[in-house]
Design a protein that fits this description.
- The complex is a heterodimer of chains A (293) and B (339).
- By secondary structure, chain A is of the alpha/beta class.
- Chain A has one domain (2-291): LarA, N-terminal domain (Rossmann fold), CATH 3.40.50.11440.
- Chain A contains 11 helices and 12 strands.
- Chain A has helices at 15-25, 57-70, 88-94, 97-104, 134-137, 159-163, 179-189, 219-230, 238-245, 260-266, 272-291; strands at residues 2-8, 36-41, 75-80, 107-110, 116-123, 126-133, 141-145, 149-151, 155-157, 194-203, 207-216, 253-257.
- An 8-stranded mixed beta sheet of chain A has the order 4-3-2-7-10-11-1-12. Chain A has a two-stranded antiparallel ribbon with strand order 5-6. In chain A, strands 8-9 form a two-stranded antiparallel ribbon.
- In chain A, strand 2 (36-41), helix 2 and strand 3 form a beta-alpha-beta unit.
- Chain A starts with a strand and ends with a helix.
- By secondary structure, chain B is an alpha/beta fold.
- Chain B folds into 2 domains: 10-128, Rossmann fold, CATH 3.40.50; 131-280 and 321-336, Dihydrodipicolinate Reductase, domain 2 (2-Layer Sandwich), CATH 3.30.360.
- In chain B, 37% of the residues lie in helices and 23% in strands.
- Chain B contains 12 helices and 14 strands.
- In chain B, strands 3-2-1-4-5-6 form a 6-stranded parallel beta sheet, sandwiched between helices. In chain B, strands 10-11-12-7-13-14 form a 6-stranded mixed beta sheet, with helices on one face.
- The longest helix of chain B is centred in the middle third of the chain and has 17 residues, at 194-210.
- The chains are: A alpha/beta (293), B alpha/beta (339).
- Chain A binds chain B through residues 45-48, 51, 84-87, 90, 93-96, 98-99, 152, 173, 176, 273, 276-277, 280-281, and chain B through 163-166, 174-180, 185, 224-227, 252, 254, 279-282.
Chain lengths: 293, 339
């Protein structure tokens, strides 16, 4: 059973201290030889962080400050990749990461332009080939900083789904018919050392300041707890179940810090009509998956 | 079509099948007095779609479409940087035209269009669908005097603009998000940001309400998304007839708002467009069942139907290209007078 910390914060408070608290609560150990630190934020299209869909640059700023206190002169890389409808060159600028990188002296990497190496991986008895970017492959510490949100097709997007964005191939829609398997496969070849969920502002039925920071070394547990918070059963979420089966982590978890119910009660859950719509989309995806064999 | 000649059916050529072009494409199918005979678009997919819908001629170049003598009028819904070239060529080929707003990227280009249109005796209209929306009632209220003198006005048009991804529409047969066309990121190609894109709607509407003459134009431009064009604009206008107006516009809001508030001496009125929840299953079911009826309620349909009526009855349509030029002049003043 993995340990998950839950810390309450608010936007105006000192994020660095709360990030520190959440990481320390799980007794995360920083090796002395860490030099290259890679931070995978969630930049979804060009959605502003204040909507709750993308990782806040303020949150990442707090994380960088914390890392610089704990590590000796770390080289920090913030990474994202191009997607079907999003280009990093615009996203970095529009979402405030270009400003952050200049202010903090860190590097922005478009993984789609990075050097890469082909890796084979098997998931659910199927073999896949993906390109692993050199920046991630050479990282001494790989930190996943996802959001916590609903997602058509996978029901939830949190730690596991955020790694999908490390796939440098831009035309990601080609994976949509086998999304769950691909998410798990990518997590197998690019497993983060630490998951740090930016739940300060979240978007469910609507946008809300939830004030949540969640830390864990286990992506599966992180998603399992995230599912609980947004009102879904993790055992009914295909990629979470598959990830556990493939040895990426455990659905069962133990929390430390705030009570998870505090956040579960406050998360702006989707109403029934939208849940039905998501179920229809999910059904459509599964029909498509079966049709394609 | 020669000027003044009465014809039974207008032949339309549609130039550009982007987001707005597709709205026109759908609406033309519901028109009684016009038909779509040709489409020009760079996208093979769009041309195939047009062919499949029974459009006789499809082109990958709008000049080829303009050379087609069977075409009476064109709808120009191409990116802003092509408006001038396309409209000038259309005028030279004697085609009447409905041009999407803004008229052009700047006053200079706008003047060239107006001059060419006048010289060739073309009926040319600017696509400002809000003129055919419920806001037309506000014009009647102002004219009726029931508000007294309108002292001030707040006109808001904020949405996610072009910068958020679009879910493919019903023509695309897929739910894959569409990338933002690259020209939207280049101010040289767009002529500006939210002010020229969305603000132009409200400036045209206010000019329609309060007249052409303005004495003061000042603007505050914002760059929330750190891009080289404004995504927030607050434009202060004083109309010579006395009304003070603020145009509040932006490309930042996930929840689109189009709202006009008029503050008169005798009364105050507020009106906004009710944007439907587009991705609801129930809404799309209703739209499928009542497709034609709902389409004919839309401002875009009314605008196009009016334009066709003007051609048939040999009237000059409004808003004209001259009005589009006046809007550009105010926008140009606003950019030059940014605080």
């Amino acid at each position: 059973m993995s340990l998950i910390s839950l810390v309450r914060t608010n936007r105006s408070s000192n994020l660095k201290n709360h990030i520190e608290k959440s990481v320390d609560l799980i007794n995360f150990h920083f090796n002395s030889n860490i030099h290259k630190v890679v931070i995978k934020a969630n930049m979804c299209y060009y959605w502003d962080y204040s909507i709750g869909e993308t990782t806040s640059p303020l949150f990442v700023s707090g994380l960088i400050d914390f890392l610089r206190e704990r590590l000796s002169s770390p080289e920090v890389y913030i990474v994202e990749s191009d997607a079907s409808a999003m280009k990093c060159k615009h996203a970095f600028r529009m979402l405030g990461y270009e400003k952050l990188a200049n202010k903090k002296g860190v590097n922005l990497i478009n993984l789609s332009k990075d050097e890469n190496k082909e890796i084979k991986v098997t998931t659910a008895n199927k073999s896949y080939k993906f390109l692993i970017p050199a920046t991630i492959k050479n990282a001494d510490l790989f930190i996943n900083v996802p959001k916590i949100k609903y997602m058509a097709g996978t029901l939830i997007s949190c730690a596991l789904k955020n790694i999908y964005g490390c796939n440098p191939y831009p035309q990601k829609f080609k994976y949509h018919s086998k999304l769950d398997e691909v998410i798990v496969a990518l997590n197998k070849i690019m497993k983060p050392d630490l998951c740090l969920v930016d739940g300060v502002i979240v978007r469910g039925q609507h946008t809300k300041k939830l004030g949540l920071i969640m830390a864990s070394e286990d992506s599966v547990s992180t998603d399992s707890a995230a599912a609980k918070i947004i009102g879904l059963n993790p055992k009914k979420i295909r990629h979470i179940v598959l990830a556990e089966k493939e040895g990426l982590g455990r659905i069962r978890y133990k929390t430390i810090g705030e009570n998870i119910e505090y956040f579960a009660q406050r998360f702006p859950r989707k109403d029934q009509i939208e849940k039905i719509e998501h179920a229809i989309i999910k059904l459509g995806v599964s029909v498509l998956r079966k049709a394609r064999g | 079509m020669k000027n003044g000649a009465k014809i039974k059916m207008i032949n339309i050529g549609l130039i550009g099948m982007g987001a707005i072009g597709k709205i026109h494409f759908d609406n033309i199918m519901h028109l009684q007095k016009a038909r779509l005979v040709a489409v020009a678009d760079l996208s093979k997919k769009s041309r195939s779609l047009a062919k499949a819908a029974g459009v006789r001629e499809v082109y990958d170049n709008y000049e080829k479409l303009l050379q087609n003598p069977a075409i009476d009028c064109v709808i120009i819904s191409v990116p802003n940087f092509l408006h001038a070239d396309c409209a000038i060529k259309a005028a030279e080929y004697g085609k009447h035209m409905l041009i999407e707003k803004p008229l052009a990227r700047n006053v200079e280009e706008g003047k060239q269009i107006v001059s060419k249109v006048k010289k060739n005796g073309i009926k040319a209209m600017i696509g400002y669908p809000l003129r055919f929306s419920q806001f037309a009632k506000l014009k009647k209220e102002i004219n009726s005097g029931c508000l007294g003198d309108v002292v001030s006005c707040l006109a808001t048009h904020a949405s996610y603009g072009p910068l958020y991804h679009r879910i493919a529409n019903s023509h695309e047969q897929t739910s894959v998000p569409l990338p933002v066309p690259s020209w939207w990121f280049e101010p040289k190609l767009t002529g500006g940001g939210a002010l020229i894109d969305l603000g132009s709607h409200m400036i045209n509407l206010l000019r329609w309400f309060f007249g052409d003459d303005v004495s003061i134009v000042k603007t505050v431009l914002g760059h929330r998304f750190n891009m080289p064009f404004e995504d927030v604009a607050l434009c202060f206008i004083k109309f010579k007839q006395g009304t003070f107006a603020i145009v509040n516009t932006g490309w930042y809001s996930l929840k689109p708002v189009t709202k006009v508030e008029l503050f008169g001496v005798a009364n105050t009125v507020s009106m906004s467009i009710d944007y439907k929840k587009k991705f609801s299953v129930l809404t799309s079911l209703r739209e499928r069942m009542l497709g034609k009826i709902l389409a004919q309620e839309s401002p875009y349909y009314k605008e196009l139907n009016y334009f066709i009526d003007c051609l048939i009855s040999d009237r000059m349509p409004s808003p004209s290209v001259e009005e589009g030029l006046k809007d550009l002049e105010i926008i140009s003043l606003a950019y030059n007078n940014a605080i």
